Amino acid sequence: MDNKALGIRVLLVDDEVEFTSALSERMRTRGLDVDVSSNGAEALKMAEAEVYNAVVLDLAMPGMDGIETLKRLLGNNPDLQVILLTGHATLEKSVEAMKSGAMEFMTKPAKIDVLVEKIRQAHEQHERLTVARIEDTMNEIQKRMGW
Amino acid sequence: MTTEQSTVKKMAASAADSKDVRPANFFMQMILPRRFLQRADRIKDLRRYRRLWWYTLLLTLFVAYLPLFVMTGVNYYMYGNNVTAEYRYDISRSLFNVSRSLEFVIEERLSVLELITHEKSDAELLDHTDLAVTLSHLKETFGGFVDLGVIDHEGRQLTYVGPYQLEGVDYTDQISYQQAVVRGACVTEVFMGHRNVPHFAITVKKDTPGGQFYVLRATIDMEMLNRMIYTQTMKHSDDIFIISHSGILQTPSRSHGNLLEPANIHVPPYSQNGEVVENIDESGTVLGYSYIEDTPFILMITKEQGDVFDMWLGDQTELIVFLVLSGFLILIVVLWSSTQMVRQIRQGDQRRVSMLMNVEYTNKMATIGRLAASVAHEINNPLAIINEKAGLLLDMANYVEDFPEREKTVAALQSIIRSVERGGDVTHRLLAFTRKMESRFEPLDLRDVLSEVISFLEKEARHRNIQIYRDFAEHVPPIESDRGQLQQIFLNIVNNAFAAVPDSGKVRLVVEPQNHHVRVQIEDNGTGISPENLEHIFEPFFSTRGDFGTGLGLSITYGLVNKLGGTINVDSELGKGTKFIIVLPTTRPK
Fold first, then answer.
1. B233 located within any domain
2. Distance, in angstroms, between B357 CA and closest chain A CA?
3. Is residue A118 part of a domain?
């Protein structure tokens, strides 16, 4: 595994600092650009301030829980790709998460390679959506300008 | 292990053992279903049902028999009374008729003699020719008169007409004469006349102006009275006769002595009307008697008890046959209905208990499910941390140059990560297993479900070196069923198999399609189950494991299989092993 920058920005949201510190370092090792947040409210602010290609989100958190955070994140930015990573792996939760618009549902403990692969996919999807949006915007401008 | 020794379907009783036939129980064993009794010895509770059965039986019998016996008794008594009343009436009527006739006939003759004494002058009475004419007139008009004579106040017969020469005979000592002198008239007892024919005499006194008197005396043939008596139609053994006040037979009798001899029967006390007396001797003879007014005669009718009761006895037999038949019928009906009733109550109780157990068990499982889910979650988080920390170390070992003892460290870390993965597997399976308590039908591959269950027990199997053989058919149609409940079913049975086999035992799992169903067979080479226990294996609270088993596992398993529309059977042979066969439909049960 090469330590090369992939140009992928990831936001990791989990209340377990021990978990996020280790995971974020491993993700960086694998070339990801990782920001860490320990609660939902902070994550929302960070997602507004920066553009992230993927968000890795825990479900069970004190304060605003994962599902609520997910809904708000997507409310602010529908193109955001969210991967849920949780220990509370019941079928009901996963169904609810997918319905709320999550891209992926993973259970802890997760294999790092699988997680990185999912993030890569999220990034690609995000890029596609962004390009499509730019094209839409360009077309709109062209139409409006009458070129 | 494969020997088919005794296939026992749930609740089907084996006809094999008929032990414990105590004499006291014999009748119950004949009437009650075998299972009812066999289990009465096994389950204490059943004594209650047996007692209930007895109570119901006895009470119902009592209530049914009481009116029957009372009615029959009343009937018997009243019928007896009727019979008595009937023959008493018979005797009274005969007595009345005959005594009236006798009184009338004697009265008539007495009256006619009195008339003669008034009508005839002394001279006419003393005239032989005239008296002869009178006698012939009497014979023609009234009959029965044999002779006629006139006796003077000194007791000498002055005139006599009749078959003998009796003029001048002295009557002073004769009762007929004395009585007539004292009372004015007299009817005598029967005596043998000169012709050796029974007669009786009637005497009437005629006073003359000179203070003297004559007594008119007529002899009357008994034949006339006899005829009147015997006109009564009587049964062969009945007897009708006349005795005098002193007990001398005045007419022939069938069974009470000879004419003019004392009758072998006591003279009954005087009574103005006819009387009927029962049991005048040991043989129970019934006597009717009537004093004939102004005569020394008592009319007697006797009837043998045997005659009286013969017809009654006939009716009595019918009554007893009726009583026995209806009693028997009632007994059968009561036995049948109380057995049915108690059986239904018992089945109802059993259903309720097992339902209760099921609910309780389901609740318990739901609680355990929730608990397991939260435990799994709590464990998953630390597992994730361990995973990431170990991963981090592994990354460092891989990427940092000159990492000391790299290979050893990498191996240790990889081992940690594998262990974490295993831990994760366990918690995931736990979550999946406890997830669904309510039925949720989805297409399932029984091979997968079974493998999933086995994975829970793999550790124990490795530990005890139990060999698990999977004989799965290549093509098994998916069945529409509930995963959680199937897991429970298989886990219960496989658990039982594990408990039964010794270390290094064998457990074989077979899954194969079978005609719109899928057949799962789980067999072991363990201790096996005795035929007696095999019968009760699916009953709630039946456990052979003593303190270790609740006795609920297989009962609930049975309930679940039923709920999923399947059947469960068990074959077992003691010492060789046990085989459970579960057949599940491929389509969802209605």
1. yes
2. 28
3. yes
